[in-house]
Amino acid sequence: MPSSDLIVLIIIVALGLGFDFINGFHDTANAIATSVATRVLTPGRAVLMAASMNVLGALTGTAARHPNASPPPTPMATSRTYTDDLERAQAFRFMLDDGYADSMAEASIRFVLSNPDISTALVGIASLEQLEQALAAAAKGPLPTEAGDKLQRTWDSFAN
After folding, report:
1. Contacts with 36 (C-beta within 8 Å, 6 or more apart), sequence order
2. Is the pTM higher than 0.70?
3. Most Cβ neighbours (<10 Å): which of 38, 43, 72, 151?
């Protein structure tokens, strides 16, 4: 029979591995940990920012993954699959069609700038070109109020 010390060690390791496994499913926890721990953001604002950016991340409008990207994620919005999320994101194409932004990535960054409840955004950058695009989008400033109103109507339409 194993000693009680060994049993305690096995339980602690199992709990640690279990926690790590479960935490891996929750990107939000990983994304907001530093900003909440350093008190840059309140937990509520950090979760709002992470949730907004996760949904807006689907707005790139394509299932193609960058070579540095991880495997396709689990659903980010209210759909059952990532592909369904991408299809739902097409409702936001008006951002491009109506000239509010030149790309969905730009629209996402400018959306964050338009929202006074978000003070910090973690933008995924995989190349120098993407960094330059993100900086150019930020330089354009917040989205016009009209675009925000259309975004709200689009989100509201999903609830019906």
Report:
1. 42, 43, 46
2. no
3. 151
pLDDT digits over 73-111, tens only?
555 555 677 777 777 778 888 999 999 999 988 998 998
The rounded mean pLDDT for the chain is: 77
Q: What b/e string do you get for 97-112 counting C-beta neighbours within 10 Å, with b at 16 or more? A: eeebbebbbbbbbbbb
If one counts every other C-beta atom within 10 angstroms of the C-beta of residue 15, the result is: 10
